[in-house]
Amino acid sequence: MALRTRTVDLLFLCRFFIRDISDRLTEKQCQHPVRVYRGQRMQIEERQRLQQSIGQLISVNSFLSTTLDRNVATQYLGDTKIQITDGDEEFVIFDIDADPKCRSKPFAIIEENSAIPEKQEVLFDAGSIFYLKSVHCEEQDDGYYPIWIMEMRLSNEEKHELPLSSFGLLLCNMKKYKFASKLF
Fold it and tell me: What transmembrane ranges does the database entry give (predicted)?
């Protein structure tokens, strides 16, 4: 949650755990190309914003959990026959091609460490960057709501890690002096 909400104090407290997960992903780096999926509900405005970003790079600010099995990703959408209670949401499946030759951020199959191994989970490191290839709507059978498919591939963009002092200066600029003082 700290990564998604960018809560500075929580990020600072969790930095060792975040680093440990990243290190484990590097150790377990997938050795062959994979196609993975992620099912989720998304605000209509966010889907539209992504649709306007076709051909651009998309950065994910948290760890990204995906699966090798599209059916598992579809299960995370819930019942697509029932209208979403919040009319501002849509069903979305991310269809992602990832090649380990892209060394920008690690990703690994973690089913042996997962609470649900049959999920066939593949985890991408926080800050992974993807190239958005296409967005299209997949109509469903009678009575089912459409599912938006977002096709992406892991990008080979170089990672740019800030030294801790740069992070401290950033915190100062954000007027988070209490947290910045912990870094100097």
Answer: none
Helix (H), strand (E) at residue 8? helix 8-27
What pTM did the predictor assign? 0.78
Per-residue pLDDT of 87-113, as tens digits, reads: 788 999 999 999 998 878 899 999 887
- Grouping H, G, I as helix, E, B as strand and the rest as coil, residue 148 is strand
3-class state of residue 71 by DSSP: helix
Tell me the one-letter amino acid at 139. Answer: E
Cα separation of the two ends of the chain: 26
Is the model's pLDDT at 2 over the cut of 50?
A: no
In three-state secondary structure terms, 173 is helix
- The whole-angstrom separation of Cα 153 and Cα 123 is 14
Q: Which amino acid is at 105?
A: K
* Contact by Cβ (8 Å): 108, 114: no
**What gap in Å lies between CA 167 and CA 181, rounded to an integer?**
11
Three-state SS at 57: strand
Distance CA 143, CA 157 (A): 42
180 pLDDT above the threshold of 70: no
The rounded distance, in Å, linking the Cα atoms of 151 and 10 is 32
